[in-house]
Design a protein that fits this description.
Length: about 100
Amino acid sequence: MTVPSDQEVSDTGDRADTAAPELVRFLTARTGRSWPPDTDLFATGGLSSLFAMELVVHLEQTYGVSVRGTDLRLDNFRTVRRMVALVDRLRKSESGDHGA
């Protein structure tokens, strides 16, 4: 399942280069399965909504962001690309960097 929000990751620059492989390693270690960056982790039956909470904790601890409120939508965690875009957006908003 691909939706336009997956395209947000194109603006993440170098952070995407390190975050995406790290997230794939984390998911592979936790599930014993390889996950391409565009695969819908939940639609494939690979992950549960309970695991989404583990993803929230992992993103917060690994990338120093706070995932709160409307950012806790399952859609933000469906693919590796969406998680990278979420982390990048949260880093920018938490650092006060609102420009390009």
